[in-house]
Amino acid sequence: MSAEATNSGAPIRRRGRPRIDLRRLGRVALLGPVSRDRLPDAIGHVAEAHRAHHPDADLSILHRAYVLAESSHRGQMRKSGEPYITHPLAVTLILAELGAETTTLTASLLHDTVEDTEVTLDQVREQFGKEVCYLVDGVTKLEKVDYGAAAEPETFRKMLVATGDDVRVMSIKLADRLHNMRTLGVMRPEKQARIAKVTSDVLIPLAERLGVQALKTELEDLVFAILHPEEYEHTRALIAAASAQPDASGAAAPQDLLAAIAENVAAVLREADIPAEVLIRPRHYVSVHRVRIKRGELRGTDFGRLLVLVGEDADCYAVLGELHTCFTPVISEFKDFIAAPKFNLYQSLHTAVVGPDGAVAEVLIRTHRMHKVAEAGVIALGNPYAADSGSAPQSAEPADGERADPTRPGWLSRLLEWQQSAPDPDTFWTTLRADLAQDREITVFRTDGGTLGLPAGASCIDAAYTQHGDEAHSCIGARVNGRLATLGTVLSDGDTVQLLLAEDAASGPSPDWLDHARTPAARIAITGWLDAHPEDTQGPHSSRPAEPRSEPQLQESTGPGHARFASAVVDRPDATVRLAGCCTPAPPDAVTGFVVRGGAVTVHRQECSAVARMRSVGRVPVSVSWGDAAGCRVTLVAESFGRPRLLADLTEAIATADAAIISATVEPPSEQRVRHTYTLQLPDATGLPALMRAMRDVPGVYDVSRAQHPAATG
Hints:
alpha+beta; 26 helices; 22 strands
């Protein structure tokens, strides 16, 4: 089954213009030259479509481009038997109908000349200028003779790099692939499947990211027919049955249900004096298939949606208000892509309402301008580099003199960055497909006021490499919305993230970072560092301390008269005094004591939760004071992010404060966090605050606190 045939029954005709017989036009083009004062008949349809979007366009350059393309391709035939000129004509017509400007159409007519004929890039530059030359070069494939099996991935790499400077390169490629997919039926089944798979993995996601929905949806249907023929035929049968006339039972056809709701919506908007156009927008095959998978059973109104087009942004919300007032809304279906546009330029309000007969209809509300961008994406922006383009952003000249593309989205910038770190074609090709499989994007805010665009599901690790590049190797943690978070924390749209870097530039990532990295840039950088440091396969962030662990010990002191332990004094002769391990009191803490089994007195800080529990069960507190002894013993807990030499730096800070380590426990790292518990003997209790500050100042340590649970007390 040919790809063209599979689309012939599609329920959507995007434009009223009938399909052009390019086979006939191709043969007409071979009949000879035409007069200089008119366009050849073969390109007249392109001119008509172009003038519909650009009434003042100068068509002379299209005439010259067509003459060069037709003469250079003369004698070449497509595998379908058509003259080859029909292909660039069809590609150009697709772009013209989407509103592409003249430069794009000129390059489209010439896009195969350098690749398949004797025409050179120098000739294209001389006759049509450097801009057209750049576009033609961007879509020209690399020779298999030179690149072998790497020709396809390297061609895409070259094309994406060119797209980074001019998004029109990818517009031409997408239209080129669409026409090839329409005529794919002449290929062997295995080649059809291979081309369809690449289209599915790479071209369709790129069309989605550039917002060119008109191309994306048709490509999806063509791929669906080739890769999933049984599901395609089943979906086609469902759409055909839904489009049939009502049977003898009198049940309304799906299009009648939508038409009835559309009439009600139009009446409501007329009564509210809101100028609007209400249309029924049939779903394409893949959309119907997805809805069927989601719901299990299709409703009558699932074969299409209502599209409401208005003049101004404010009218969109006015329409929404009327619909939610006059109909029962399905609140879970509401989405506002006007206030928060998608990363591919898409803007619209989505809602669903229940009609008078109980049928649920999905409704899209947008302005005419939004609709044009929703269909054509970046193509609708015209020439983004023309200073006098009213609908496109002004071109910008960065400091280095290279042209900056004002339409370049964040995902494309990230792609261009990581592809430089993917030296071999296989890594690039595999990573590209994985990157394009991420179909949503989020924006997170940096504490310095900047923003980071990341794919949905990205973690703090991805944010670190996006912001800092290879410097992120030394990242030891993050704060998300002001709270400390592990590097594996998944970020949400609108989060504020602060990345914490170690001062030690020799720090490196741990292999388990790969479990949390989602962006290709992060994964390539981490893998590259680990490959370059095979001697440390565990990574410094997951290294275990070399020092032996000491188990907690409990020491006590007894004596006649007043009992003393770390200067704690209780008025109970011969009593054993213990400092509680849950709060490790030390001078000058406010303390209290309780007699426990065996007559010993346990001393707690007054704010310790154990004090409240003792009082609640009727225990009588014992008065405790601090004696004259200056020294004290205390247990401190240091929370930190793992890094090399952390334990050595902490013990050095403790030693500098003249404190002696009685015991130490270092727990195994968990999600890059390490917990150290130290029982220390201080020569002077007044030095405790300074010691804790010194420990907090150690790079990687984010908190030092007194022990709040049973721990070593010496």
